[in-house]
Amino acid sequence: MSDLLPQIDTQRLPHHIGVIMDGNGRWATGQGKPRVFGHHSAVESVRATVESCAELGVGYLTLYAFSTENWDRPELEVGALMQLLVDTIGSEMKMMLDNGIRLATIGDTAGLPQATREALQLGIEQTSSGDGMTLILALNYSGKWDIARAVRRLGQEVAAGRLDADTLDEADLSTRLSTHAYPDPELIIRTSGEHRLSNFFLWQAAYAEFYFSPVLWPEFRKDDLYAAVIDFQQRERRFGKTSEQLKQATNP
Ligand code: IPE
Ligand code: IPE
Ligand code: MG
Description:
Elements: E1 16-20, H1 24-30, H2 35-56, E2 60-67, H3 75-91, H4 93-98, E3 102-106, H5 114-126, E4 134-141, H6 143-159, H7 170-174, E5 187-190, E6 209-212, H8 222-233, H9 243-250
Bound molecules: 3-methylbut-3-enyl trihydrogen diphosphate (2 copies) and magnesium ion (MG).
One 3-methylbut-3-enyl trihydrogen diphosphate (IPE) is lined by residues 21-26, 66, 70, 81, 192, 217.
């Protein structure tokens, strides 16, 4: 039993956690191995993170798995990542079903190789009756892509006369993002000591709490996730208000 788990208040969990899984390449290089070895080893970290979030009762977990910029990596690495997705959906199916997980994707999945698209489709279908956590894989995803697509949709609807351009508001844009069915992430974790969003949830992260872990992703385990949640629960989320106002609201 983890020492950290009992410190988590399960009544105050983040509804949606986003994870920027980073450091696979550096971890492998540090072991004198090729970068793809790091990607393969990362499957265990994915499993630990998915299981711990599902067990805690987190509603939504988004894993940033492949950005629109990641196409610029060597072809061999991109190919290995795409194949790894196919293999991992197969190898983790039982874990997802056992945990009541429903698989979903965000991103321009039409741009993924056919075998990857088919494996994702199968995974989504096979887990569709899951009544627990929604696991969202961000694939060929970027925040700018998401916002640009939403704006394009708004433009089309305005042109078709279904929407009035003069009254467009934040909700109109939010509801056209790929995440329209999910709450905004309250906690965003990035591993490997890097402090940037790398084009992840640009719009959705407006009020997210950030947690940066020095751990390289292939070494990330349940206790690292628990530590992030505990840190999140110790923060005061003010949403523009003052600390005094928040205290008055809880002790009127
Ligand atoms: C994260 O690890 C995996 C993906 C971005 C697909 P990296 O492959 O970015 O590892 P580093 O950052 O090079 O160490
Ligand atoms: C961010 O990691 C993308 C994913 C985790 C999928 P990168 O390793 O690609 O980010 P940069 O290029 O270092 O910012
Ligand atoms: Mg990286």
